[in-house]
Amino acid sequence: MGVEVAVEGLSKSFGSQKIWQDVTLTLPAGEVSALLGPSGTGKSVFLKSLIGLLRPEEGKIIIDGTDILQCSAKELYEVRQMFGVLFQDGALFGSMDLYDNVAFPLREHTKKSESEIRKIVMEKLELNGLLGAENKLPGEISGGMRKRAGLARALVLDPEIILVDEPDSGLDPVRTTYLAQLLIDINAQIDATILIVTHNINLARTVPDNLGMLFRKRLVMFGPREVLLTSDEPVVKQFLNGSKIGPIGMSEEKDDAQMAAELAMKEAGHHDGSHEVYGVVPQMQATPGMPVRQAVGRRQARVREILHTLPPEAQEAILESLNSDQPTQVIPVVDPENGQSSTGRIG
């Protein structure tokens, strides 16, 4: 099972520019979490801080009991072995074929024989729908296949924590859904702790167990999906609905006069192109035949414990979600790159 990642009072600057400050959150062990926010809010900086690639000036990052901002280089190396990371572009070595790219961490960090390495590599390639492509170079395949190859490489050391930076970057909506389904299935199989950094609204609504949002250099909220999807926090509501109405502007935050003018236009019937959704939309489920995702039960138990503290309208929407016996909707998912089909479930 994955491990808990606790962040306390974290602040990061580049020179005189404050990126974010006093960020405190806990990624629950074995659950899928997503960190949202408009472009330029430091989401990727946060992800790189968790693995020690960037060093915040203040705060703690506690992973399996070790504060990586205070530990020795040897301890940091050991903690990093718990991570698998999928960067935006896959970060593959262009001169190596997919097999050698995926095998690289095993050759670098273990003493396994080549026959053992081959077994693991082929297993991860199969999991990611890449059997038959192992001899191709990254430059010979599509962006979606490079993403999946990057994910295969991130999984070869059986990580307890998986970090995913902008999984939809450079991908169309169909391939993004396919990759999201893969992450859900991986969580079902190995119960890893997963953090997805994204600004994709559909992915944020339907995939993670927990949501957090960075805005104006602070963590606005972090908690179970049910809480954020029913939140009246203006910036959270605006972002999750893709609306112009709210504090987020094109470049900087808006002033009160601009917000009032936009609200007046909305009340007068002007539509800004957003699709306002209130309530808990169905979450993507693991593909039929996969183990039951234990994360769902753990998250729902936490939600029931805090339900009484939420506004009445939110309580009603969340209870309806928790108590509903929605029939599972089986959706065929065809990988546009190799024509193979699998099934995903929403409900």
Automatic annotation (TrEMBL):
It holds the Pfam family ABC_tran. SMART domains: AAA (SM00382). Gene3D superfamilies: P-loop containing nucleotide triphosphate hydrolases. GO terms for molecular function: ATP binding; ATP hydrolysis activity. InterPro entries: AAA+_ATPase (IPR003593), ABC_transporter-like_ATP-bd (IPR003439), ABC_transporter-like_CS (IPR017871), P-loop_NTPase (IPR027417). PROSITE patterns: ABC_TRANSPORTER_1, ABC_TRANSPORTER_2. Residues 5-241 form the ABC transporter domain. It comes from the Bacteria. Keywords: ATP-binding, Nucleotide-binding, Transport. PANTHER family: INTERMEMBRANE PHOSPHOLIPID TRANSPORT SYSTEM ATP-BINDING PROTEIN MLAF, PROTEIN TRIGALACTOSYLDIACYLGLYCEROL 3, CHLOROPLASTIC. This is ATP-binding cassette domain-containing protein. It comes from Speluncibacter jeojiensis. The lineage of its organism: Bacteria, Bacillati, Actinomycetota, Actinomycetes, Mycobacteriales.
